[in-house]
Design goal:
369 residues, mainly beta, 8-stranded mixed sheet, 6-stranded antiparallel beta barrel, 34% strand
């Protein structure tokens, strides 16, 4: 594919989308009653050791039993999974237990049979480098940020970043780099040009901003089995507003409501250092917690915000909304046949209510949104 064709494709998917700089940063598509997510008790825990090694990719395994358990959680399981830990800049750690109500429970969808693959690149590599002086700094690509532990994140408010939980916590402890966690923003290099014979400076640089608070669901921390990927998400709060456009969050609808049945995400894949990498692909299947697809990805793209174009009836146009977080790779074993997928954690009504509360700090505002 030629460069001109690639740019036309990128322009097509970058258009018909509106950035948000103010106002609500979450949206609720309706059709279901919004769950109530209400914190009940917060207790102080010992400070984290920050001893875990950071990993830029996650691979899990799941079979028919794990798919069934995922679709049939008990009420107590839901409350335990949606309880969350908060770690502050000074190392203080707390656990918040929650109460939930009006929670719909979905049925499982077993992934269809696919030919076995061996990598996170499926066939011809379908990723695009976002090059040039302006493309990486334009919406929606500008909402993608780099996490200092080696992953990717996406801006969801004027000071919040959504990413994958495994980027900061290995399920047992916080990773070493999470003690002084930073978020990197692509920015234009405004330094004066060097003499003609000198090597030209990079046109884009990464500007780092400190994180003052991280929040991770207990569904990730307490689980070292096949269910862990279901809650592989975390929210980072920056010390100060970033002043950039961000993307709105919403509940993942049925694939029939997604334009072209396609999802999109951009990330900092480790095999292309210094490049912001964009991809899109169709949704293959889904479970109550996961989106199965074959979007090409490599380590470093974990934590990317997965978005889709959704029709906004009140505005009479399509908009991009975050519907998931890219997690990693999963092998699914059904009837003795193994299939593999790249997997995103889908935003469910309860996860939406939780993340909305983390951002706004007021459950009633999220419930009435």
């Amino acid at each position: 594919m030629g460069r001109s064709q690639m740019l036309l494709i990128i322009l097509y998917f970058a258009n018909q989308s509106r950035a948000s700089r103010s106002g609500p940063n979450t949206s609720w598509g309706g059709g279901q009653k919004m769950p109530v997510f209400r914190p009940q008790e917060t207790v102080r825990l010992a400070k984290p050791r920050f001893s875990a090694e950071a990993r830029q990719e996650l691979t899990t395994h799941c079979d028919a039993g794990c798919l069934w358990r995922e679709a049939h959680p008990t009420f107590d399981d839901l409350k335990e999974d949606l309880a969350y830990e908060t770690v502050y800049l000074n190392g203080t750690r707390t656990l918040t237990r929650v109460d939930i109500s009006d929670s719909p429970l979905s049925q499982t969808h077993a992934p269809r049979r696919r030919r076995r693959r061996k990598r996170q690149i499926f066939g011809v590599d379908g990723r695009f480098d976002i090059r040039g002086d302006h493309f990486p700094l334009s919406f929606p690509f500008s909402t993608t940020v780099k996490i200092s532990t080696g992953c990717t994140g996406i801006l969801v408010s004027d000071r919040h970043v959504l990413t994958a939980a495994h980027c900061i916590h290995d399920g047992k402890d916080y990773v070493k780099g999470a003690k002084k966690l930073k978020v990197g923003f692509l920015t234009e290099n405004l330094k004066a040009p060097l003499p003609k014979r000198a090597k030209p400076p990079p046109k884009l640089l990464i500007r780092w901003s400190r994180v003052k608070r991280t929040q991770v669901p207990r569904g990730w921390i307490r689980s070292q089995n096949e269910l862990s990927m279901d809650y592989d998400y975390a929210l980072l709060e920056l010390k100060r507003p970033h002043g950039k456009a961000y993307m709105e969050l919403t509940v993942m609808p049925s694939p029939a409501q997604v334009a072209g049945n396609r999802i999109h995400f951009s990330g900092f894949d480790s095999d292309r250092p210094g490049q912001l990498v964009y991809r899109f692909c169709p949704i293959i299947n889904e479970t109550p917690h996961l989106i199965y697809q074959h979007c090409d990805a490599q380590p470093g793209s974990s934590g990317s915000g997965v978005y889709a174009k959704l029709w906004m009836p009140d505005k009479h146009h399509w908009e991009r909304k975050i519907v998931g977080i890219f997690s990693g790779h999963q092998w699914v074993d059904l009837n003795g046949v193994q299939k593999d997928y790249n997997v995103a954690v889908r935003i469910t009504p309860l996860k939406y209510a939780q993340i909305c509360y983390w951002i706004k700090g007021n459950y009633s505002e999220c419930h009435s949104n």
